[in-house]
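In the design runs reported in the main text, the only information available to the sequence generator was the tokenized backbone. The following block is the verbatim input for one such run; it is reproduced so that readers can re-run the procedure and compare outputs position by position.
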């Protein structure tokens, strides 16, 4: 019975749907849980009892401001996996100053006052290594429900969404915030273009690029 359930989850992840506002809360809850132990997110985030609440606030912002607004947030039908892509016109993540102001309460909720330096260092470091010479899709986040990690769901939704981007004839870029995921991305055609730490005490990130693949 367990194998049948795992097979069904993989099937759903391999044929994801474009998320709408009606899906937002379920996707946000899943991503909040999926990144609870992510090394980079743990380093950036606040260190008190409001950590989980702050992480959820950040995903509320990302899902609504980038995912739904860019129309490139994909989820499996059972919400066990999701991928948030940013289209080329917004892949540099630059936004007008007023959006930065609007975002500030979310950032403070996520990092606390003491973490503002960490998130600033992260953003500057990531921007420095982000390719700027050609249009591309940017994988903001890919998450799998912790209960089902290790069952191939991340690979399935990644491949399914990459196929849609390959059909558009565009390359993609991401930063892996967890070393264990680097081999997964390599299997899907990514190459490491940089390895960097936002601050000396920060965990490493891997910038990874993938050229468009013929299907």
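Verbatim output:
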């Amino acid at each position: 019975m367990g194998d049948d359930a795992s097979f069904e989850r993989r099937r759903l992840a391999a044929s994801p749907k474009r998320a709408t506002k009606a899906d937002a809360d379920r996707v946000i809850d899943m991503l909040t849980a999926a990144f609870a132990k992510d090394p980079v997110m743990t380093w950036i985030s606040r260190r008190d009892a409001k950590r989980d609440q702050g992480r959820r606030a950040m995903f509320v912002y990302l899902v609504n401001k980038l995912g739904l607004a860019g129309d490139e947030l994909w989820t499996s039908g059972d919400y066990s996996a999701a991928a948030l892509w940013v289209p080329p016109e917004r892949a540099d993540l630059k936004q007008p100053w007023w959006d930065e102001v609007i975002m500030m309460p979310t950032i403070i909720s996520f990092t606390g006052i003491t973490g503002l330096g960490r998130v600033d260092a992260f953003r500057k470091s990531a921007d420095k290594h982000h390719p700027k010479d050609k249009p591309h899709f940017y994988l903001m986040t890919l998450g799998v429900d912790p209960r089902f990690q290790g069952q191939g769901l991340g690979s399935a939704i990644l491949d399914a969404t990459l196929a849609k981007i390959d059909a558009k004839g565009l390359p993609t870029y991401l930063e892996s915030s967890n070393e264990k995921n680097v081999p997964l991305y390599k299997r899907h055609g990514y190459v490491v273009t940089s390895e960097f730490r936002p601050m000396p005490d920060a965990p490493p990130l891997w910038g990874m690029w993938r050229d468009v693949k013929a299907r």
